[in-house]
Amino acid sequence: MSEYRKLWWLLIAILIVTFSLLGYFGREVYRQAPPIPAEVITDTGKRLMTNDSILDGQTAWQSVGGMQLGSIWGHGAYQAPDWTADWLHRELQQWLELAARDEYQQPYAELSAAQQHQLQFALKQAYRTNTYNPDTQQLLVSERRAQAIAHTADYYSRLFSDAPELQGTRESYAMKENTLPSPERRARLAEFFFWTAWAAATERPGADVTYTNNWPHEPLIDNRPSAENILWSIISIVLLIAGVGGLIWAWAFLRKEEDVPPVPATDPITSFALTPSQKALGKYLFLVVALFSFQVLLGGFTAHYTIEGQQFYGIDVSQYFPYSLTRTWHIQSALFWIATGFLAAGLFLAPIINGGKDPRFQKLGVDILFWALVAVVVGSFIGNYLAIAHIMPAEWNFWLGHQGYEYVDLGRVWQIGKFTGIVLWLVLMLRGIASALRQPGDKNLLALLTASVVAIGLFYGAGFFYGERTVLSVMEYWRWWVVHLWVEGFFEVFATTALAFIFYNMGLVSRTHATAASLASASLFMLGGIPGTFHHLYFSGTTTPVMAVGATFSALEVVPLVVLGYEAWENWRLKQRAAWMNNIKWPLLFFVAVAFWNMLGAGVFGFMINPPISLYYVQGLNTTPVHAHAALFGVYGFLALGFTLLVLRYIRPTLVFDERLMKTGFWWLNAGLVLMIATSLLPIGLIQLHASVAEGLWYARSEEFMQQDLLETLRWIRTFGDVVFIVGALAVAWQVVKGVFGQRA
Q: Transmembrane ranges (predicted)?
């Protein structure tokens, strides 16, 4: 411990400080969340909606797929509009039209420029002035605004029904006919959309910005970037440059030359006889590639909906498998197969850590965990289908159907099942680790691995701190604990430490180097990663300090990624140290790809949308899936596949990888991802960015803009990248299937 004491204290200090920041400002999220009024009333006393009816609208939105059908406050899918920005712009237009007829007896478009400017000034005063009374919990609106709300609500009621005059719009938005069959629930849905737009237009008490920090960009009411937005954007860029410079200096002056151990004559991991629990991991590897294949095929299918809307090459399939459902399955299956790959890697290591033997009943636990995973996958997918098809009773939706929140779409019962499975994995891991920790010798690397395993096992539980009717700002705080902190934080530490542990056990790196590198990497990841969670919450009804903390620390997330090229080279160079390393050439190459995509997808594309001024204009545009695809698959996908191939190679000792299959799989996956991004997602996102800056987010996501010929052509072009990617995915899947079921190349 003594030789690593400084590194341990550094990591512990970082964890204490960063979690304190996350907790303190999380408390502010609760205190400062936009209020949901007890009543919304007109100045004549007419009641328009209530707290319960707005929350009923939130549950109605969840039941149609929630964030998988358009977005709210910029979070969600990208084909349908952002409902907040769309509602706000439509309501503003209705108000101006009503005001023009009341004041001048003419349509707004026929007024003079001076008259239009006069009404726009009155509009800004009417909408940005906060008329919510915290004592009575009543929100007061004018009769004119009440009429504008009613007109906008009528449009949404028809849009989410099967009204024939809006069939073309539904097709443009990839919505199925009669998306929400109940007229009463459509009325409640409109009230929820109104509330999200009210929070985005009304100034927070004591501030000159709205509850959502002036997001979305809406020139009609002067929703523009705040001074704080620009200030913290500049600070984040300066910190990034300073962080990169500091890392390079530390790398040059503090990094010690590695004490390279003598290379073993044979792979030390093969000196252990396979245990029953390790032999049982074949089915996990099959589940990984089965879900992977399902996911990429669904991805191509879902992407095609952005072109035809309700059809797949002329076949109307939207009534059975609409966009919101297939996108849900696409994202959820990705999370399932990536997590399964990580779980399999951990379960493979557990007996090795335990001295080459299984703890008692380990195989039984491995088998139970597998079938529990299968049950959660199948159950959650069926629940998603029944919810979006409105076969499931509305009151069951949140628990068994669809929560409506991107990345945690599965019903709460299935979420509990998934958490139970992860805890079971944690128990299985700790049973193998506990006895090893009691043995004499240096256990620092094992202690760090243990800490990451415990964090993975427990932090998924953050998703239980919100409920069906939790206010959206609070829900987003906890959702990003799962999506950002659990996935991007603790999985990153586990992956780094697990790889270091594997290479150390192979005799390729020294224990000292593996331990010091893992501790230093964990400190760097956690320093930016924990408070960096707030960069997802700039415009989710939070205050300026949340933006400041998020911008400051999330810039530091990019810093360690600048040295990943060297890490990739170090990993690849390991194969030259021993002839037997050629047996795991392909897993190593997948780990090299992880480093590349971490730099590009998480680093370059991540920081592209990270500063507040950038995210202000690009949140909810196709620049976000550029980062999501390059980081989620490019980093965690390649990592899970690398773990899968590595475990496969060891549990099937006589397996020889098929070079033709592996070359096709590896290079076509990378090429397909590049094509997907470079020829479609990124160009569309940049074109949308121009529209967002020039006109507003509502326009960049509008039917008029998204259905223009150029953007439709770019969405068609994506098909080529999708096909290349699918070929690569099927090649890798077939290699794993051949290996698992005993075929030899």
A: 7-26, 230-254, 284-307, 334-356, 368-392, 412-433, 445-466, 478-504, 516-534, 546-566, 586-609, 629-648, 668-689, 716-737
What token pair was written down for 91? Answer: 């309501």
Q: How many domains does the chain have?
A: 1
In a domain, 518, yes or no: no
85, part of any domain: yes
Residue 317 lies in a domain: no
The answer to whether 645 and 586 are in contact (CB under 8 A) is yes
Q: Mean pLDDT, the chain, as a whole number?
A: 92
Measured at the alpha carbon of residue 223, what is the angle toward residues 221 and 224, in degrees to the nearest 5? 135
Let me know how long the chain is: 745
Whose CA is closest to 76, among 219, 163, 166, 193?
193
Question: For the segment 480-494, what is each residue's pLDDT rounded down to a tens digit?
Answer: 999 998 877 788 888
Residue 468's CB: how many other CB atoms inside 10 A? 16
What is the rounded CA–CA span in Å between residue 74 and residue 213?
13
Distance CA 102, CA 107 (A): 10
Domain enclosing residue 186, as ranges: 33-212
d(CA 77, CA 175): 12
List Cα–Cα distances, 37 to 40, 49, 186, 486, in angstroms.
6, 9, 20, 33
Is 508 inside any structural domain?
no
Residue with tokens 């006589």: 654
Task: Give residue-wise pLDDT tens across range 283-327.
Answer: 999 999 999 999 999 999 999 999 998 998 888 899 999 999 999
